[in-house]
Structures are given as C-alpha cells and as structure tokens.
Amino acid sequence: MSFSINDAFSFFQLSCGSWKSQRSTHHLLHRQAEPGTSFILVKALELTDDRLRKVAEMHEYETSKLIGGCSVQWSGSMAWDQEGESHKGESVFGLVPSNINGREGFLLRDRGYAETAPVAGKFRMDEYDTLILETGYDTMNTIERFWFSGPDLRLRSSVVEGLSNTASFCVETRYK
C-alpha cells in the first residue's frame, strides 16, 4: 500500500463510499465453502447526528468520548440461501478511542455482525495499518481484520467461533 493510515477514524473515513464485496465463507462443520456477493454503502456521520448519541447512550458512554461514526447499509446473497432469506441490513457505529493516537478503543454498534443485538467491540490497528475488530456476543465471538490494498480495494477476513464456526475472506472493490 502506498499510503499510511494514522488512526481508526481515518480508516473509516477511507471506507466511506459504495463497495461491491465478493465473499467466500468456509463452514468448518460442513467442510465446504460458500460464495456470496454484497453491496455495501458506508456514510460518515457528523458528531451531532442523533443516531451517534443514541448508540453512545445504548452502551453507557458519554457522547463527548465519540470521535466519529458511520452508517453502513448492506444487501447481499449467499449461494446456500433459502427462498425468502435476506442478507439486508443497516447499522450505525461510533468510535471511542482508548489511547491518544486513536489506534485502539471501542466500536459501539446498534446492531452486531454475528448477532443482531447491540454490541460493543474492541478495535486496534497493527503496524501494517490493519484494523482488527474483536467482538464478544452472547453465543459467539468474532475476529475481523480489514485492510486496504489500495484506495479502492479493501480486504477483509473474519472468524466466527461459537454456535456457528466459520472463516470468511472478502475482496471489496469501491464503486466510483
């Protein structure tokens, strides 16, 4: 990558826009991979956005601790989908850094990835500017890694452990 990312807030600003995500999910129990496609829209939210205030209050954080946030909408399909099954949704999240450089902290969401309940995960960025998000749910845990291969190409891997054990890899291409 020919650019560096200073902090998690900058990472999410770079993520704003429209994306097409090609996914391969490996279901460990079934020993099979399932392909899928999603369309994702990421929009930055102003700190004055009422949705950010609500997500902070939901997780009992002071809104003054937030440094920013986004709304994410997605619509997708997976190869094994049953008739009527929908992979459509929307989530709002806010960033609360826990250190001065903003490279680690908490990601507060009104809706989780592995479960739809509100959830707060921990984020950190490594020396390669990879954003690592660890989230504990009631019935499972996830570790997601996001990184840019260029300004319009983002890669993502995730591992879900618990009731459903999966490993996924996504290639996400920005729409211009």
UniProtKB/TrEMBL annotation:
> Does this entry carry the keyword Metal-binding?
no
- Keywords in alphabetical order, please: Lyase, Plastid
Q: Where is the signal peptide?
A: none
Q: Which Gene3D superfamilies match?
A: 2.40.128.20
Taking the record's annotation, the residue ranges forming a coiled coil are none
One GO BP on record is: protein-tetrapyrrole linkage
State the Gene Ontology terms under molecular function.
lyase activity
EC number(s) per entry: 4.-.-.-
* General function of this protein: Covalently attaches a chromophore to Cys residue(s) of phycobiliproteins.
Record family assignment: Belongs to the CpcS/CpeS biliprotein lyase family.
**Record-given protein name:** Chromophore lyase CpcS/CpeS
Source species, please?
A: Paulinella micropora
